[in-house]
């Protein structure tokens, strides 16, 4: 199990000062657990997060002891995209939890040889399971897409023992589609006769206006 060391954090200390020390402000909470401010090493968290994501149980070593937790929420800097705050959710081993588990696509779809394009509709699926049964990801084999009518739904996924999908089994995960051909727009030909008529009409109007002005001047 992946382990993350956590230290007590004084909420009176400006979070910017904590980040300058190479740490990330965080908090852990859960059923029967009071919300507690902590701080974790930035480098250690980044390494653990890349491996565990938000769907794998980790061991959070706190001053109160080791706790089973999920990385529940990671707030990122809007400019730099680096973590600036973390929420850890403490789980109970005997209670099911709901999480979004990422889908990992493998293989090649034979239907692509027919000119088709793989259409990935879902990239994660929400499941319910005991903490010990949570899969880090769900694998989907694209080689099952043998023709243009082939598709894989939630009901086709191998979720593992004790894992229940929280979305309808008929939901499409991945299928095939044909590429859309872009029709080249043919420019509408210009009607030169209409331009000639318009120009002739404009000249006639100018001549009439000139004659009218000349008549008024003579009066």
Verbal overview:
With 219 residues, the chain is α+β, with helices and mostly antiparallel strands. The protein folds into 2 domains: 3-92, Ribosomal Protein L25, Chain P (Beta Barrel), CATH 2.40.240.10; 98-177, Beta Complex (RNA Polymerase Alpha Subunit, Chain A, domain 2), CATH 2.170.120. It has helices at 15-20, 42-52, 192-218; strands at 3-8, 23-30, 33-41, 58-62, 65-76, 83-90, 97-106, 117-120, 124-129, 138-141, 151-153, 164-165, 172-177. The strands form 3 sheets. Strands 1-3-2-6-5-4 form a 6-stranded mixed barrel. Strands 10-7-9-12 form a 4-stranded mixed β-sheet, with no helix packed on it. A 3-stranded antiparallel β-sheet has the order 8-13-11, with no helix packed on it. A hairpin with a 6-residue loop joins strand 5 and strand 6 (83-90). The longest helix is centred in the last third of the chain and has 27 residues, at 192-218. The termini are far apart.
Write the topology of this structure.
Elements: E1 3-8, H1 15-20, E2 23-30, E3 33-41, H2 42-52, E4 58-62, E5 65-76, E6 83-90, E7 97-106, E8 117-120, E9 124-129, E10 138-141, E11 151-153, E12 164-165, E13 172-177, H3 192-218
Give a summary of the structure in a few sentences.
By secondary structure, this protein is α+β, with helices and mostly antiparallel strands. Helix content is 20%, strand content 38%. The protein has helices at 15-20, 42-52, 192-218; strands at residues 3-8, 23-30, 33-41, 58-62, 65-76, 83-90, 97-106, 117-120, 124-129, 138-141, 151-153, 164-165, 172-177.
